[in-house]
Every structure is written in structure tokens, then in C-alpha cells.
């Protein structure tokens, strides 16, 4: 479906009819050849924006998948970088794909659920790329509380947010249709496969971050330009853990 190295339509169907964890275990060997993997252009833009706030000592890639965000952290962090994901298959690919950088931070990989992180306040920077569609809106307070708990006071939580498509556009109807299909699937089959692209609104996200104890700043990523109304197409959210 996504080229010769990507998954077939049948493989995607099997994934979608599985649980989220099992689905990503199955998709892991081909994940980097799908549009679900965060593009390098976004990773690089976030790295450039974060460089203004660094350097950092320790970093955590939340829901790291095959380790794309770990590469960003390896540029930012001097001491150690940890990737955490609940898919054993994704972590196995990440271990093979991301080598220990010579003279760089120590790398570690941990299998865990982002809603129950097995760490104390050990990190200066947490990043996440493309994972929030797998959390229901009511799960955001707990997720952000978990992130708050693993950051040292003054630590940062950073992630990119793409502006929603213009109502009536092709992208708008595509995302609306995808979410509708997933809701029907989850209404008739268990376990659920939570993947909703339109559930992560910036206003609510900012509110929940502030409730969890963060001071929130928004940075436009100029590499992606602006919409007709002048607003950025892509922003980086940078949330600082308050004492």
C-alpha cells in the first residue's frame, strides 16, 4: 500500500483488527516505510527549536516506536536517552535501527505504558512524536501527570502539533472519515484500536498541561509556513514543569 517495502492492505487490515499493542508488534518491521512514521523534516525542525532551550542532560522519548525521536534527543542530551514504548515489536526494531552514538549519551530501551511510567523524576527533557492519537481525550490528564512526574523541576516536555485542516478541505474529510471508521470498528469489535486523528485539540491540550503543573509556551516552526489566516501550520508545544 505504501510501496514495495511498506505493509500490504491485508497486513494493515490485520493490524487494525488487533489491539493497539499487537497491531504495532505486527507493523513494526515495516513501520518506517509508512506515513505513520514522523517525517524527518518535523524531527529536524523540533530539534532546531529545542536547541534554543538546551543543552539537556537526560531525555525520554515517550511512545518511541522505532526510535525516530531518540535520534532527536541524542543531539540534545549529554548524559542518557531512554526510549519507552509498550510494543515489544517496535522496541526490537528500535534497538536494531538506532545505534549507540560514539561519544554520545547512553541509550536505553524500556517496555512500558505511557499511562504508567516506571520512572521517578529523572529526566530533563521528554519528547513525543505522533503518539497522542492513541490516547482518548479523557486520558490526557493522567498522561500529562505521568510526564510531570518523570521530569525534574524545570524540565521540559516538547512535541509538535499540526494545525487542523480547513473545514471542507480534502484533508478535513479524510481525517473525519478515518475517525468515523475507527469508531465504528471499536463499536463492533474488541479489543479497541484507539487511533483518532482529530481528538488532540491544542486548546484542550494546553489546558490539561497547565492543570498538570506545566507552564506552556508555543513556538511556530517556520519551516512549514503559515495558513491563509496567518497562523502557523505546525507548532512546537514546550511545557516546563513548575517547581
UniProtKB/TrEMBL annotation:
Signal sequence range: none
SUPFAM superfamilies in UniProt: S-adenosyl-L-methionine-dependent methyltransferases
Domain of life: Bacteria
Pfam families in the cross-refs: Methyltransf_25
Annotated transmembrane regions: none
Gene Ontology biological process terms in this record: methylation
Keywords: Methyltransferase, Transferase
Molecular function, one GO term: methyltransferase activity
Ranges where the Methyltransferase domain occurs: 60-155
InterPro entries (UniProt xref): Methyltransf_25, SAM-dependent_MTases_sf
Protein name: SAM-dependent methyltransferase
